[in-house]
UniProtKB/TrEMBL annotation:
Keyword Hydrolase: yes
Keywords, ordered alphabetically: Hydrolase
Keyword Metal-binding: no
GO molecular function: hydrolase activity
InterPro entries named among the record's database cross-references: AB_hydrolase_1, AB_hydrolase_fold, Sec-Metab_Biosynth_Hydrolase
Name listed for the protein in its UniProt record: Alpha/beta fold hydrolase
Listed Pfam families: Abhydrolase_6
Domain AB hydrolase-1, chain residue ranges per copy: 4-229
């Protein structure tokens, strides 16, 4: 059985994996989630949140046997962690996540390459430019379009401000990052990261490493059982 570490995306926290952790446990796996610096219950000031510290938080919670799952923006901290210590985890799984498609790009650089940007109308930047939030009136349609109304409402109420400095920091990746086994899960009804862009980011990946779900951007809430089952299959396949 596998050991999973679950890493959230922008404006989220460990709370979003609440239903996936017991679903993985029911399949015989160990699973845990953490708050990245500045998110969830972590109170690091936004001007002190860095990509390096986010990667360090991932590594601190990981072991050489851990399968690290990164959702959305979480794809960059897990990539930075793999570059810093490729032996610190067993494998990476990107869940409708941004990946460093080219060394030296930031997450924002990668996002800008997408053919369209559904989240931009909902983004509200702070006056100091150090963080952003998502307009609650638009968050459900972007993040939780296929979730039950009560689930979506509960999630929207827990969204937090997202530090921007780590998302604008370029990430250099080398053979260290390349040496870590990777898989990707495309979400076909994603209203945040266009599914066609997820296809583009993984166009040169081995086909047996790219999987899909017929969900929106947050399958951990809309289909936690299905997500747990797919994570289990990916981990068991090596």
């Amino acid at each position: 059985m596998a050991d999973f570490l679950l890493i959230h995306g922008s404006c989220h926290g460990a709370w979003c994996w609440r239903d996936v952790i017991p679903a993985l446990a029911a399949l015989g796996h160990d699973a845990r989630a953490i708050d990245l610096p500045g998110n969830g219950a972590d109170t690091t000031p936004h001007d002190r949140v860095t990509l390096a510290d986010s990667a360090a938080a991932v590594l601190a919670a990981s072991t050489p046997e851990t399968v690290v799952v990164g959702h959305s923006w979480g794809g960059f901290p897990i990539s930075a962690a793999a570059e810093a210590d490729p032996e610190g985890m067993r494998a990476l799984i990107y869940l409708c996540a941004y990946i460093p498609v080219q060394s030296g790009l930031s997450m924002v650089d990668v996002r800008k390459r997408a053919p369209r940007h559904p989240i931009l109308p909902a983004v509200r930047r702070s006056a100091d430019g150090l963080s952003m939030t998502v307009d609650p009136a638009l968050a459900t349609g972007i993040f939780y379009n296929d979730c039950a109304p009560d689930v979506a409402d509960r999630a929207v109420a827990q969204l937090c401000a997202q530090a921007l400095p780590p998302q604008t920091t370029p990430l250099t990746v080398t053979e260290r990052f390349a040496s870590v086994p990777k898989s990707y899960i495309v979400c076909r009804d994603d209203h945040c990261i266009p599914p066609e862009y997820q296809d583009e980011m993984t166009a040169d990946w081995p086909r047996d490493r790219v999987h899909e779900m017929a969900t929106g951007h947050s399958p951990f809430l809309s289909d936690p059982q299905g997500l747990a089952a797919l994570l289990s299959r990916i981990a068991e396949a090596g």
